[in-house]
């Protein structure tokens, strides 16, 4: 194999694939990136056996071939090369290493046979549909913060993607919950997505996909089967196993008919929560909201760290009440709403609270209260 590629194109492709490679591996081939050179192009692939990312770039290929080299080591070498460098990769039959040449620098990396590299992207998919890049990014951003990290409830360790009946009609819905908070986002159902009855996309896949979307084209093709999901855009393809489990019936925890409504300027409210929560005990991070006509008072009273209160103007016309929340969870939800209005719908101090974004009717959040 012998090829020459511009350093920027090589760095971008390697940056897309190498992050999926675990730093410590008991299987040596999984520490490597697969490089396949064909006429006029080269592809790079990396996998951890659960996720596979493939990306490509144009290259001047003198001799076709395929080989695997250490992913992180190759990426670090290329990252430190001067901008605009022409990088030459050369593997000859009389040297068991690949030689990387750029300017006056020469680097020799160990290789493993391409035939030993595991492939994930093969296989058939039951349904395919196309989604706008911005729409997919929104579904992820609105929900991923609520993914559970508790491994015993593995079926909550991802985003649940499925077709649903939303308030505005058929929708592609993303849901995540950790039992303390729930996030839901809808998008008008694209053609072909009706068959998506429900798949759980693992947390690591969600994080890798969101990172790749920053460089993606305007549209993403999504293919789904019972065991895998695949996202394709431009030269990049991410294929992932799905979580084999049953997502709970989340609709049962979404409150209906909460009659106590509070509306606040979200940016002012979130900054006040952040300031008052500075005094909260690390263990519970609890903060009390005291609701009364036209205002909400945020309070923390900790025997360990002290006390703090702050008043925020709010639209609230129901009976006065006190309710407590985990400050971090409250800030996580506020962080999804931005600078518009946030609407909180309460029932009582012991029941789930529904939070809505005043600028986005197709998203909602549920937050469980704490005793304060």
UniProtKB/TrEMBL annotation:
Main location: cytoplasm
SUPFAM superfamilies assigned to the protein according to its UniProt record, in alphabetical order: DNA clamp
Keyword DNA-binding on entry: yes
Domain DNA polymerase III beta sliding clamp C-terminal, first and last residues per copy: 252-371
Subcellular location field: Cytoplasm
MF terms in GO: 3'-5' exonuclease activity; DNA binding; DNA-directed DNA polymerase activity
Swiss-Prot/TrEMBL GO biological process terms: DNA strand elongation involved in DNA replication
Domain DNA polymerase III beta sliding clamp N-terminal: from-to ranges: 1-120
A Pfam family assignment: DNA_pol3_beta_3
Keyword DNA-binding applies: yes
NCBIfam families per UniProt: dnan
Name the UniProt record assigns to this protein: Beta sliding clamp
The organism of origin for this protein: Candidatus Phycosocius bacilliformis
The gene coding this protein: dnaN
